[in-house]
Amino acid sequence: MSVFFVVPKSGHAAFNPNFIISDRDFTNVYGLVGNSIQRFLEDQSGILDTLTVQDLDGQVKTAADIISRVANQFLINPQALLVMLQKEQSLVTDPNPSENQLDWATGYGVCDGCSTSDAAVSRFRGFAKQIDSMAQQFRLGYLADLEKLGRTQTGVGPGKTVSIDGVPVTPENNATSALYTYTPHLEGNQNFWKIWNAWFTQDPLPSGTIVRDASDGTLWLIQRGKRRLIPSDAVLTSYFPSASVIKAESSAIWSYEEGVPLQFPNYALVRVENGDVFLIVDQEIRRFQSLDDLPRFGYAPDEIIEGSATALQGYTLGKMITYQTAYPQGFVGQDSATGQTYYIDNSARHIVLSDALLKSRFSGWRVRSLSTDELASLVEGDPMRFQDGTLVKLPGLPTVYMISDGKRRPIIDERTFLSLGFAWNAIIETTPESIEIHQPGDLITY
């Protein structure tokens, strides 16, 4: 199958001092390959796009070639080396740096209070020497110690709480531990994180994307710029039975501000501190006016889950459920004469425009037969739509759409589809009407 599927740079990320970059990202020597380093430097318009200096072997080389050599020799992502050059001396974007900036390009050997004129420090002077020494320190020093001892020589390691500028920090991985060992300050490491995310973090995932952390398996809903924890696969399928789940690195997931978790399954009854009970229906909460009405709707007291008002903050407040409310949870009805299906909710009928949509939204639901007159007595509501995160297309046509914030967003090409981690078998083929009911959204590129 061939399809056509972009994701925009994140401006809403929240800094997590315990997790600056994933181990995989920090050591991915293929982060930039071939001429990509030179092209990146040219795009940034700093001195490094034209700089040529003597490398450690005595040969005059471009800055890009030296960065590439060091990255491959010490198995450090060249992107991470570029971020360090920018964090320490702004060399990637500064078109007119001082000689001192170039001589101490990565700040290697220059401790707080050290003098660059000291013989013990001055031997690290020079652009090539700086990059080489820094990368060597990371690979043969910090990362080697972390693999062998679980900590660096300064005691920084995953799961070990240390004080950084008076703030307790517990690094979650080796890369973060190594960065704090090299720069034992919050601001410097936050700058690394900011630069990394501005330059190299993938564009934000479309709202509605379900992501599984490649490191620990946790599930997250990316929704309107925030990551919302989904505590289990059961909770996931209760809300998004047809959503395609992709895998992502922790660093990509943590680049989103954390939102309120989807703590409870769909259609759960939740009691908060003041005794009020709410029914959850598709990320909307509806309060029961009286608990005496619970048996009328088929609910038993032992079905109620104890929760809190805080845990429900991420849900939209819906209409109150009263004695007069019909079908608060809703059901699927079918016109006995025409065979047309509807979702019935709150005395309203919502047409289901295709069998594929019916299966996607209401798989396993019992369908009740209703007469035409019974359906006519109900208020006509908005047509049903596919849930966010669903991939849909028309038979025989290549364009694949992702439903995101209720809109249909075309995915630009096959490479983007695969890069996002989607699976071909997650695509639902459906009718034009059931796709066009969603307003057109922005193109998804990658």
Q: Could you explain how this protein is built, in words?
A:
This protein is of the alpha/beta class and 446 residues long. The protein has four domains: 23-199, no CATH class; 209-258, no CATH class; 269-317, no CATH class; 331-380, no CATH class. The chain contains 15 helices and 24 strands. It has helices at 23-27, 36-44, 63-74, 78-89, 99-103, 119-122, 127-149, 174-182, 186-199, 233-239, 250-253, 355-362, 372-376, 414-419, 432-436, and strands at 52-54, 60-62, 162-164, 167-169, 209-213, 219-223, 226-230, 245-248, 257-258, 269-271, 277-281, 284-287, 304-306, 316-317, 331-335, 341-345, 348-351, 367-370, 379-380, 391-393, 400-404, 407-410, 427-429, 439-440. The strands form six sheets. A five-stranded mixed sheet has the order 8-5-6-7-9. A five-stranded mixed sheet has the order 13-10-11-12-14, with no helix packed on it. Helix 3 packs parallel to helix 7, helix 4 (78-89) crosses helix 9 and helix 7 (127-149) packs across helix 8 (174-182). The protein is elongated. The protein starts with 22 loop residues before the first helix and ends in a 6-residue tail after the last strand. Mean pLDDT is 90; it is low at 1-12.
